[in-house]
Write a structure and sequence with these properties.
The protein contains seven helices and seven strands, in the order βαβαβαβαβαβααβ. With 257 residues, it is α/β, with parallel strands linked by helices. The chain is globular.
């Protein structure tokens, strides 16, 4: 692959393991020459992330719980000290309590609703606000991950669908605010992929089989395909694109069923 991102830097929020969509994004960006920083949440994921990023020499590994503002501040301080500037942010963070991802949506608790929005939607705004200063004059790109459940009722997706709708609205408002600074903000709506977070959605396997049978390409997508879309949105070939949602779902979103 041509090193079209040589000399660029980026930070990836949301890698959990090798099956993470965020890891697919990281591989595509690293293969294109970008130097990367990665965050992890708590000791449980630290070992997994550190082991993974051994495949990408020169990477930073930083602790960050996005519900703790002081940790988000510290991450960007460390990135500034090490990189000096920032070209790309990949926001691949989402969380809802497992019990909120099954049954009827009207059973959603207030605590579950607020937690899903804080982690899955508000964190994009909090991260973007801190990234701005490091992206000034760099034609920076912020990319987040969403899902069709933001627009359609998807069985058992429940509160996460509402959070993803808020996330997509945030993309548009952030794109309008940051555009004059030369910073682009976009989302990728990926088809279902078997990740750690997806395992919390009840009957997820049945959903992937259903989608593969209906999508125009008659299959599901891979994290590598989403990663290449992230590379496109992070690089010069998408320099005129902001405030949009790019579907990488084998075409499922165009179907009427």
């Amino acid at each position: 692959m041509t090193k079209i991102l040589e000399g660029k830097t980026g930070i990836i929020f949301g890698v959990a393991n090798k099956r993470s969509i965020a890891w697919g994004c990281a591989k595509s960006l690293a293969d294109a020459g970008m130097r990367l920083a990665f965050t992890y949440v708590g000791e449980r994921l630290e070992k997994s992330v550190r082991e993974l990023v051994k495949e990408i020499p020169g990477s930073l590994v930083l602790r960050c719980d996005v519900t703790k503002p002081e940790e988000v501040d510290q991450v960007f301080d460390q990135v500034r000290d090490e990189f000096g500037f920032l070209d790309t942010v990949v926001h691949a963070i989402a969380f809802a309590k497992r019990e909120e991802l099954q049954g009827d949506f009207y059973h959603t608790t207030k605590d579950g609703y607020m937690l899903a929005h804080e982690v899955s939607a508000y964190s994009l705004t909090a991260i973007s606000r801190r990234a701005m200063a490091l992206m000034e004059g760099r034609e920076g790109s912020i990319v987040t991950l969403t899902y069709l459940g933001s627009m359609r009722v998807m069985r058992n997706y429940n509160v996460m669908g509402i959070a993803k709708a808020a996330l997509e609205a945030s993309v548009r408002y952030l794109a309008a605010d940051l555009g004059p600074r030369g910073i682009r903000v976009n989302a990728i709506s990926a088809g279902p992929i078997r990740t750690l977070s997806a395992s919390g959605v009840k009957d997820f396997s049945d959903m992937t089989e259903h989608i593969a049978g209906i999508a125009p390409l008659r299959r599901n997508v891979t994290s590598e395909e989403v990663g290449d879309a992230c590379l496109f949105l992070s690089g010069p070939h998408s320099r005129g694109i902001t405030g949009t949602t790019l579907f990488v779902d084998a075409g499922f979103h165009i179907m009427g069923v």
